[in-house]
Structure formats: C-alpha cells, structure tokens
Write a structure and sequence with these properties.
This protein has 65 residues and is mainly α. Helices cover 88% and strands 0% of the residues.
C-alpha cells in the first residue's frame, strides 16, 4: 500500500469511531429524554392530590392529625 492507502484507511477508522461515538451519544440522549418523559407525569399527577388534601385540611382543621 502506498501512503494514500494508509491515509485513507486511517481516515476510515477515525470516521467509523466518530460515527460510533455519535451514535452512542444519540442513544444516551434518547434514553435521558425517555426517562424525563416517564418521570414528569408522576410528579405532575401528585399536584392535584396535594391540592385536594390542602383544601380539605383548611376547610376541616380537626381532621388534620
């Protein structure tokens, strides 16, 4: 192989590793996004319940323990 052959081979290896790292980062960010979408409804669903508890305690203070 001449120098051009080695240069193109090393460039291919570098491009491939760059592509792999980009794909890995994409998958990491996709997983992070899915986790945040899964966790958000849980925290949001507690707000109406907490509001109802606060309202019931304010209207009937004897029921609070």
């Amino acid at each position: 192989m001449n120098n051009d052959g080695f240069a193109s081979l090393s460039r291919f290896k570098m491009d491939r590793s760059t592509k792999d790292s980009r794909q890995a980062e994409y998958l990491r960010s996709a997983i992070r996004n899915l986790k945040s979408k899964i966790e958000k409804p849980r925290t949001l669903s507690l707000e109406p319940l907490l509001n109802r508890i606060e309202r019931s305690e304010s209207t009937n203070p004897q029921s609070a323990i």
